[in-house]
Design brief:
Distance between the termini: 26 Å
Radius of gyration: 23 Å
Structural class: alpha+beta
Strand order of the largest sheet: 9-8-17-18-19-16-20
Length: 519
């Protein structure tokens, strides 16, 4: 792939080694009278990205979303509290890392300066034993980032370092896609760290916190996915591990402006409209059957979570071939997770961080004090003298008792922040979900790619194999652009440029050592 120009103004961040994938060539815009028609099924990040990328080239787009609101797993919706306040509930905290180049490119369409995002000062981690780590003072450029983290961390001791097996860790220093999957996809994240003899304290405090951001137990998560994560966030990028968060709830800060722009681009946005099935026509094109009726299209983007994709494909017998349909049917969903949001009548101590990753506090994985950065929560806290706290628990047992788990999270909050035990819960909302993709051992080859056996049908989402070093929300946005580019190429229209973190290790010496270790 071609690398980007070296003048700084062209780059999406501070990393001088960020990689540019130029826009595929073509006409700037479709003729209005003969513009192709595309259906985008799914209004999450991937679907919104694909719809935007297509509509910008003059394609007549209809976006279907089953839920009343856009945003998918980053959606928000209104709820009325017992004190009469209207608040926005969501599926929980999301970190917008600075290396999410393509997601941020989507958001820049309506907020060129990204003024709606607020930078948090640190990514602190706290263990039940009292150990703490953070990334505020860690250098951002590898390998100084890794060395700085070890030097500053309470989780590493000189004795721990002498016991580590650095040769086993060398694959982390030259991560490439798809080679990292060929090498590590059959190994669990837990076993990979065992092979390195990574210090137990550091593993529990830092890396299990990261792996659980994939909503999976490290014993169930592919080591290849973990290695890619280390590359994207830590060892391969100089953007660092600090991140931004929206300064208002997700709808107001992110998706309402994107939906408004889609309207100005003449796209049709149909929320609250489930798609029942898609039929591929013998003469080409498709019919989409939805709650609003049947409509013909020249192309279809399926931008759905694993369960949604399985469901639509199972009801759409003309899509794909047997092998493709079998692979879609085998996609797995990660274990359940819980988001508890509490409106308290008392404040959280002023020196508490806005976001804290946790380990050793039972099922509790992180705590957010929303009124530290989110305008709506801050206004409620200022008016009432209280606080708005959000608790997350990932990778819960399939049959976890909901009431017991919710009480456990609140109890662990009291252990972590004792002042909250003196506050009364004015209101609470609990979201139990189980719709995130699971990246199990050996699962990479079974995941769908953007292209499918059916011409004009493409797939987008964070479960999709992109062949690029991207993960989580950035994989969703990148796959949305790739899906749009694939269709635009069919119609002779210009695609969209993409950026990624470097697609290999940053040091030639370390790349050589990693290759030697793999022989």
């Amino acid at each position: 792939m071609t690398r980007g120009p070296h003048h700084r103004s062209a780059r999406p961040g501070r990393d001088r080694q960020a990689r540019l994938l130029p826009a595929p060539p073509g006409a700037a815009r479709a003729d209005r009278d003969g513009a192709p028609r595309a259906a985008v099924v799914g209004g999450g990040i991937a679907g919104l990205t694909a719809a935007t990328a297509l509509a910008e080239r003059g394609v007549r787009v209809t976006l279907y979303e089953r839920e009343p609101q856009l945003g998918g797993r980053v959606a928000g919706w209104p709820t009325r509290l017992t004190d009469g306040t209207t608040a926005t509930m969501s599926r929980g905290f999301h970190a917008f890392f600075r290396q999410y180049y393509n997601l941020r490119a989507l958001l820049r369409r309506t907020d060129p300066l990204l003024s709606g995002l607020v930078g948090l000062p640190d990514y602190p981690l706290h263990h039940g034993s009292g150990r703490q780590d953070g990334f505020r003072h860690v250098p951002r450029t590898p390998p100084l980032s890794a060395l700085g983290f070890v030097a500053l961390s309470e989780s590493f001791t000189p004795r721990d370092l002498t016991r580590m097996r650095p040769r086993a860790a060398l694959p982390l220093l030259d991560v490439r896609v798809p080679e990292v999957y060929e090498r590590l996809d059959l190994v669990s994240a837990h076993d990979f760290l065992e092979a390195i003899n990574f210090p137990a304290a550091a593993r529990h405090l830092a890396f299990e916190v990261f792996s659980r951001s994939f909503f999976a137990d490290p014993r169930e998560l592919s080591a290849a996915e973990m290695a890619l994560m280390f590359h994207v966030y830590f060892l391969g990028s100089s953007e660092g591990l600090l991140f931004d968060v929206p300064g208002e709830p997700f709808p107001q800060a992110l998706w309402d402006p994107v939906a408004g722009r889609l309207g100005r681009l003449r796209a049709r946005v149909r929320t609250g409209t489930a798609v029942h099935g898609v039929s591929a026509l013998a003469a080409g094109g498709f019919t989409v059957s939805a709650a609003s009726g049947e409509e013909p299209y020249d192309a279809v983007v399926l931008a759905l979570d694993p369960a949604g994709l399985r469901s639509v494909v199972s009801r759409s017998e003309s899509l794909g071939d047997d092998r493709w349909r079998e692979r879609v049917a085998r996609l797995r969903t990660a274990p359940p997770f819980l988001v508890s949001r509490l409106w308290l009548d008392g404040p959280v101590r002023a020196d508490r961080p806005g976001f804290l990753g946790t380990s050793g506090f039972g099922a509790l994985d992180n705590v957010s004090v929303l009124d530290r950065w989110e305008g709506e929560a801050a206004r409620w806290a200022a008016r009432t003298g209280g606080s708005v706290v959000e608790l997350h628990a990932y990778a819960l047992p399939e049959h976890a008792d909901r009431a017991t788990t919710q009480k456990e999270l609140q109890s662990e909050l009291h252990r972590l922040y004792p002042e909250t035990s003196r506050s009364r819960v004015i209101d609470a909302r609990h979201e139990w979900r189980a719709d995130c993709p699971l990246f199990p051992l050996g699962g990479y080859a079974e995941r769908p790619t953007v292209g499918t056996p059916t011409p004009g049908l493409v797939v987008a989402g964070d479960v999709v194999r992109t062949g690029l070093p991207v993960a989580l929300m950035e994989r969703a946005a990148t796959s949305g652009f790739l899906a749009a580019n694939a269709l635009l190429r069919r119609w002779g229209l210009r695609g969209h440029a993409l950026w990624t973190v470097p697609d290999r290790g940053r040091s030639a010496v370390l790349r050589w050592a990693a290759r030697r270790a793999g022989r």
